[in-house]
From TrEMBL:
It is found in: Cytoplasm. This is ATP-dependent 6-phosphofructokinase. It catalyses: beta-D-fructose 6-phosphate + ATP = beta-D-fructose 1,6-bisphosphate + ADP + H(+). Keywords: Allosteric enzyme, ATP-binding, Cytoplasm, Glycolysis, Kinase, Magnesium, Metal-binding, Nucleotide-binding, Transferase. The active site is at D127 (proton acceptor). SUPFAM superfamilies: Phosphofructokinase.
Length: 319
């Protein structure tokens, strides 16, 4: 293999740049040229690409976002659009593609594999919702961003004895909300993987009040409902007044944590090795500290499993 390409797709995640850097540098070690595709699948179809030299990925390991830009490009579900992407890559002499993204991006990659073009997926999304890997690039950074935000909200919540609802991203997954809830000591965590019961939330708040807790912080994952909706339910069902803080896209930004940088570096290098070894339609992941590869379809056909033991712990520790 003499020439490969790399792109970033879907929601950006801190650490994507570190993964791009690792791909380019590992490829250099193996004497392989790397083409960077701009704007994810859209750029692939429109032929927006450039050669990435070792120096082009200098000083990006510490930066959030993605140097290659990203896009959501629904047209990529169309077979003829995918054919165009493959034609562009073949014309440019590209023999394999590394896709850095989430479950949606993996579907696109698998379609290319089915059409005979080798692809490897690197999981990068703050949602941590890619089945088959315990962690995705960006999750740890986003988690620390949420923890920092909740810590700050706690300062004002305690000072004014207010009850706060913090709405956290994650699409249909509750990992970000759950891990942040444990790490920031939230009074309650509401995630899509556990049936929602307004009475339970109210009981939790009342129990806190009974033991003298005059403020509270409830973390709700966006996949369950919005913070505003939860505020309305608490008001209507128990007359409880809350303030709502929607953290929004700040959760996707910032300099990646050490953990995300290391993971991204390992994933990037491993993906290049996998392509060179002739693998195709494989997803890279981490399981019990070991970097592994597995069937790409497993990453979007299976359900993402959150850590329910951690949920139990969260409820136990926030009595
Ligand atoms: N079923 C699909 N078939 C082909 N391409 C897809 C499919 N789903 C998503 N994609 C491509 O992957 C891109 C990113 O997917 P998205 O779900 O938005 O983000 P993520 O990859 O982070 O989960 C989409 O904009 C689209 O170009
Ligand atoms: O910025 P957008 O396009 O509104 O997307 C918001 C979504 O993107 C995310 O930040 C990341 O999701 P993906 O990794 O699937 O792209 C989700 O947490 C959130 O629901
Ligand atoms: Mg996704």
């Amino acid at each position: 293999m003499k020439k490969i390409a790399v792109l970033t797709s879907g929601g950006d995640a801190p650490g994507m740049n570190a993964a791009i850097r690792a791909v380019v540098r590992k490829a250099k070690v193996l004497n392989i040229e790397v083409i960077g595709i701009y704007y994810g699948y859209q750029g692939l179809v429109e032929g927006q690409m450039t050669t990435l030299q070792v120096g082009d990925v200098g000083s990006i390991i510490q930066r959030g976002g993605t140097k290659l830009y990203s896009a959501r490009y629904p047209d990529f579900k169309q077979s003829d659009v995918q054919d165009q992407a493959i034609a562009n890559m073949r014309e440019a002499g590209i023999e394999g593609l590394i896709v850095i993204g989430g479950d949606g991006s993996y579907r696109g990659a698998m379609d290319l594999v089915k059409k005979g073009f080798p692809c490897i997926g690197i999981p990068a999304t703050i949602d941590n919702d890619v089945p088959g890997t315990q962690y995705t690039i960006g999750f740890d950074t986003a988690l620390n961003t949420v923890i920092d935000a909740v810590d700050k909200i706690r300062d004002t919540a305690t000072s004014h004895e207010n009850l706060f609802i913090v709405e956290v991203m994650g699409r249909d997954a509750g990992d970000l909300a759950l891990y942040a809830g444990v790490a920031a000591g939230a009074g309650a965590v509401i995630i899509p993987e556990v049936d929602f019961c307004i009475e339970d939330v109210i009981a939790r708040i009342k129990r806190g009040e009974y033991r003298g807790k005059m403020y509270n912080i409830i973390i709700v994952a966006e996949g369950v409902m919005s913070g505003t909706e939860l505020a309305r339910l608490l008001k209507e069902n128990a007359g409880i007044t809350t303030r709502v803080s929607v953290l929004g896209h700040m959760q996707r930004g910032g300099s990646p944590t050490g953990r995300d940088r290391v993971l991204a570096s390992q994933f990037g290098a491993y993906a290049v090795e996998a392509l060179v070894a002739g693998k195709k339609g494989r997803a890279i992941g981490v399981r019990n500290h070991e970097i592994v590869d597995y069937d790409l379809t497993e990453a979007f056909k299976k359900e993402h499993a959150t850590n329910l033991a951690l949920y139990t712990l969260a409820t136990e520790l926030s009595i």
